[in-house]
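Section 5.1 Outputs to date
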Amino acid sequence: MRGRKEKKPPDSKEFTAGAVRKAVWSEALQHPTTLLPAAASILSGAYMGLIGLDQTAFSVMLGAGLVSLASVVFHYLIRGDHYAEIHMKKLLARRNEAQNQAASDLEERCLAINFRDGAQQCRELNAAYRKLKDFLANSERPGSSAERFSAMADDCYKQAVGLLEAALRAYRVLREVDSPKLARERDDLEKQARIMELAIEKGNDYHQPRLDALRTRIGSYASRLDRHKERRIALDTLMAEYEVLEGALESTYLQVVDLVGSSPIPGITDPADTLARAVDAARRVETRLRGIEKPGEDDDIYLEAAKGH
C-alpha cells in the first residue's frame, strides 16, 4: 500500500449530461482535424500581419478557418454520441480501477491487523461484484434492465465496503483490549470490596474511603467490559450483514444470467429487488450501530485504559 499512488474515482458530477457535453465539446476542439487547420489559419493571419495583405495567405487563413469550424461542428454534432460513449467508458474504467484499488487496500489493512476474516470477505466480495459487472457489461441486451442491475450492484458493493470499513474499525479496537484479563481484575476488585464490606459491617468504618475507591474502579472496569461486549456484538452484526450483501450479489448473478436478454421467468424474484432489499437492510443496521462502531474520543480513553493493564 505504501508508495502506491491513490486512484480517485470520478466524481458523480462527471457523469451528468452537462459534464459529458463539455467533455465532447473539448474533444471536438482538440481533434487534429480542428487544431491543424486552426493553426494554419492563425499562422496565415500572423504572416499577413507582419508582411502585409497577401491573397494566398488570406485564402489559406479563410479556408483553414472554415475547415477547422466544420471539424468542430462535425465532431460535436455528428459524432458527439460516439465521443460521449467513449467518455463514459473512460469514467467507468476509472471508477472500476479506483474500486479495485480501494478493495485491495482494504484487504491489506485487514491483514495488517490480522483481521483475516475481513480480508477473505473482501476478496470474495470483489470477485462476486466483478463477476456480475463483467457479465452485465458483456450482456446481449445492454438496455434498461442490465443498467438497472448494474446500478443496484454498484450500490450494493459500496454499502458492503462501508460495512467492512466499520467492521475493521471495531476489530481494531477489540484487538487492543484483553477482555479476559479485565474481567479477572474486576473480579479480584469485587472480592476485595466484599471483604471490606464485611469489615465495615463489623464496625471498621475506616475502610469506607477505600471501599468507595474500589467501587469506582469496579465501575470503570464494568464500563470497559460493556463497551467491549457492545463492539463484539456490533462486529458480528456488521459481518453478518456484509455476508448478506455478498450473497445478494452472488444470487443476483445466478438470476440475472437467465433474466438479462430474455423475458422474466415466472416465480423468480427480480434480482434488482433482491439487491435493493439487501442494501436497505444493511443501511438500517449500519445506522443502528453507528453510535457503537464510530470512532471517537472515548475510544482513546478506552484503548489507553486497556493498555495500562
